[in-house]
């Protein structure tokens, strides 16, 4: 399978694949704005699955865990371009424009779709950098990020409460978060950051709530979900083992037999 993921300049990433590709779990610590040039992306997050269709602009808030499945179009092309709206540029913009944030953005939705001609034209204007017909200097790269900020705010002024919210990540309900995100195979420090904790505080709080270490709890939780999917949904391990955070089938089968005392084929 041929997969291309290229960093054009510091904050601009271009992805291109030529057949269906299942991406790994990714943790995005910064906001990003993306455009689906061709094909479509199925994004799995803690609220379900979102489909990003061709010619769609998507805004994804920072501190999210997602997994993607990339589907080429009928012509065989998949192209997606994303620009990161990093904190340094956002802070400079807010200071220069005297942006004042007096409330939090209350919406819980993770992604916003804006079929806006100006936003679509913006991404098409990045083609020369993708095609390498023009080189982006650091100054020009920042100008393109600032242009994206202006277009987002023009599309929805309330997005300022997202873009310029620089408050420290506050602690979230750990039990609720882990029950929604246990299937994501990411390092412990990513779980800690997403719940507003240091790694040591995360481990301490986790043990207090679940009476288990994160590693053991995650393994048991994933195996219990696997048992449910096999028995009640009649699914095969090959259909879901990656989606439940297992890296390979042999590890899954061995762990399953060790926990339940029987193999997956012996479930009745």
From TrEMBL:
Highest taxon listed in the record's lineage: Bacteria
Protein name listed in UniProt: AraC family transcriptional regulator
Gene3D superfamilies: Homeodomain-like (1.10.10.60)
One of the Pfam families matching this protein, by short name: ExsA_N
Residue span(s) of domain HTH araC/xylS-type: 172-268
PANTHER family: ARAC-FAMILY TRANSCRIPTIONAL REGULATOR, HTH-TYPE TRANSCRIPTIONAL REGULATOR EXSA
Alphabetically ordered keywords of this record: DNA-binding, Transcription, Transcription regulation
PROSITE patterns xrefs: HTH_ARAC_FAMILY_2
InterPro entries given in the database record: ExsA-like_N, Homeodomain-like_sf, HTH-like, HTH_AraC
């Amino acid at each position: 399978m041929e997969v291309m993921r290229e960093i054009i300049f510091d904050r601009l990433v271009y992805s291109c694949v030529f057949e269906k590709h299942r991406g790994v779990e990714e943790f995005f610590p910064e906001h990003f704005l993306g455009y689906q040039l061709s094909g479509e992306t199925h994004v799995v997050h803690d609220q379900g699955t979102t489909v990003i269709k061709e010619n769609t602009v998507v805004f994804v808030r920072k501190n999210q865990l997602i997994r993607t499945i990339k589907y080429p179009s009928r012509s065989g092309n998949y192209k997606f371009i994303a620009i990161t709206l990093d904190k340094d540029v956002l802070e400079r913009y807010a200071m220069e424009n005297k942006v004042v944030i007096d409330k939090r953005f209350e919406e819980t939705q993770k992604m916003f779709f804006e079929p806006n001609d100006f936003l679509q034209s913006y991404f098409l204007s990045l083609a020369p950098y993708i095609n390498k017909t023009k080189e982006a200097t650091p100054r020009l790269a920042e100008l393109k990020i600032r242009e994206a900020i202006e277009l987002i705010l023009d599309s929805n002024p309330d997005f300022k409460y997202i873009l310029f919210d620089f408050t420290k990540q506050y602690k979230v309900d750990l039990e609720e978060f882990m029950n929604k995100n246990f299937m994501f195979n990411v390092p412990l420090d990513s779980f800690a950051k997403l719940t507003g904790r240091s790694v040591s505080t995360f481990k301490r709080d986790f043990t207090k709530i679940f009476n288990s270490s994160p590693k053991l709890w995650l393994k048991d939780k994933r195996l219990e979900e696997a048992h449910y999917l096999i028995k009640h949904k009649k699914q095969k391990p090959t259909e879901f083992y990656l989606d439940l955070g297992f890296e390979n089938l042999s590890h899954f089968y061995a762990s399953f037999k060790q926990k339940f005392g029987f193999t997956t084929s012996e479930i009745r």
